Amino acid sequence: MQYQIIEQGKFKYIEEGEGEPLVLLHGLFGALSNFKDLVEHFRGKYKVIVPLLPLFELDILHTSVSGLAKHVNKFLETRDLKGIHLLGNSLGGHVALVHTLKHPDRIKSLILTGSSGLFENGMGDSYPKRGDYEYIRKKTELTFYDPAMATKELVDEVFDITRNRLKVIKIIALAKSAIRNNLGEELNSIKQPTLLVWGNNDTITPPFVAREFHKLIPNSELHFIDRCGHAPMMERPQEFNLLLDNFLKKLATPATVQ
Fold first, then answer.
1. Cys-Cys link to 173, which of 11, 51, 63, 146 (CB 3.0-4.6 A)?
2. Considering the entire predicted model, what is its pTM?
């Protein structure tokens, strides 16, 4: 399904449905297509919003995790969104964490999947090799448990990015920023209910990273999905959506008075 991209000043986003806001943040090579199944599942019950993160539009000094978090904060302020369920995959999870730590009042719950912020294996020291399609295809396949998930369309998107020298510089800047910006000592101050959904076969942010997040974030629950890599909402959408559905339903149910 094609969604209308709304442009409001310097912000671009899609918005589907009505209800409590469910804001989705994509990763370094992410796109709207990453959340297609999630949007379709939840648009009947929530106002699902996917801002397009300006990965390549910020000046080089602000091409960082904190620069993206500032952009997200300005976007949420502009839209005057409150009581947000904030979900992030990979770099988007890192941005969601930084935002929640700095602006907790707007966030009702936090959902992380394959998030950076503690540890990640990037594309490797040699990445990205410009003009080497086969190399990019193999690296894209590593995102998933099932290599067939790395469709020609997806590989073409990544390849096109890596052919642009300035975009490559910004990818490297963002990746280095994610490694430097380790949140381990701050995570215990997150009070929001937090759902952690991880692929059991994630090689970029492996399962031990999820366990560490679970240990450090006080009010968190952790679920693993088998035969699944770094993007569970793409690779195992039904399992992912069921876990998220159950988590959000619990938050909507008033606590029982003893």
1. 63
2. 0.93
